[in-house]
Design brief:
heterodimer, A: 118 residues, mainly beta, four-stranded antiparallel β-sheet, B: 113 residues
């Protein structure tokens, strides 16, 4: 069974459209994240949620809105897509934040969603 | 703020050669350190980690030692295989910042038969 899954794997769309990427983890983790990997492979965090509560919100355009319906899911909705949004988006999860031991910091990544905006 | 610097690639090696990828970091706190690997067309996989000074992480023949005095976490493998061709990322996690992972720029490794 896949631990962290993302759908879709590939997404090709036109500028100006609105799209969503879904992430699910079956590891029982409390914390989930979204990262963006640009064309030069540089990875940067966008958001994180702990038990459905927003913890990290980096400098990301407000066209990007994460939603966590429960602690096993963290979806990313993007409004008015722009060419510069083309990237690979990775979801990740880790066991816990509150009272966490060092071991619980480890993040497990999904396979990525390759978004191409035309 | 936190940052991770790793050597730029690509690194091209022959099979059975010795691999070293340098990684240094700056951090305000006391981070845990990680190496992730990304095989072509795939997502990130945790390769190894170390959570305190002088810890050695190891997996699949790769090793890295957490050196607080030199703020380094260099990745090594004694004998690489073609299947080790991938992009390797050094990263640190900051518990004070919500466990945010800060990544280095990645090092592409190409192993030729």
């Amino acid at each position: 069974d896949t631990a962290v899954s993302q759908t879709p794997k590939y997404l090709v769309t036109q500028m100006g459209n609105d799209k969503s990427i879904k992430c699910e983890q079956n590891l029982g983790h409390d914390t989930m994240y979204w990262y963006k990997q640009d064309s030069k492979k540089f990875l940067k965090i966008m958001f994180s949620y702990n038990n459905k509560e927003l913890i990290i919100n980096e400098t990301v355009p407000n066209r990007f809105s994460p939603k966590s319906p429960d602690k096993a899911h963290l979806n990313l909705h993007i409004n008015s897509l722009e060419l510069g949004d083309s990237a690979v988006y990775f979801c990740a999860s880790s066991p816990s934040l509150a009272g966490a031991t060092r071991i619980q910091e480890t993040q497990y990544f999904g396979p990525g969603t390759r978004l191409l905006v035309l | 703020g936190n940052s991770v610097t790793q050597m730029e690639g690509p690194v091209t090696l022959s099979e059975e050669a010795f691999l070293t990828i340098n990684c240094t970091y700056t951090a305000t706190g006391y981070p845990s350190l990680f190496w992730y690997v990304q095989y072509p067309g795939e997502g990130l996989q945790l390769l190894l980690k170390a959570t305190k000074a002088d810890d050695k992480g190891s997996n699949k023949g790769f090793e890295a030692t957490y050196r607080k005095e030199t703020t380094s976490f260099h990745l090594e493998k004694g004998s690489v295989q073609v299947s080790d061709s991938a992009v390797y990322f050094c990263a640190l996690s900051d518990r004070a910042a919500g466990n945010k992972l800060t990544f280095g720029g990645g090092t592409r490794v190409l192993v030729k038969p």
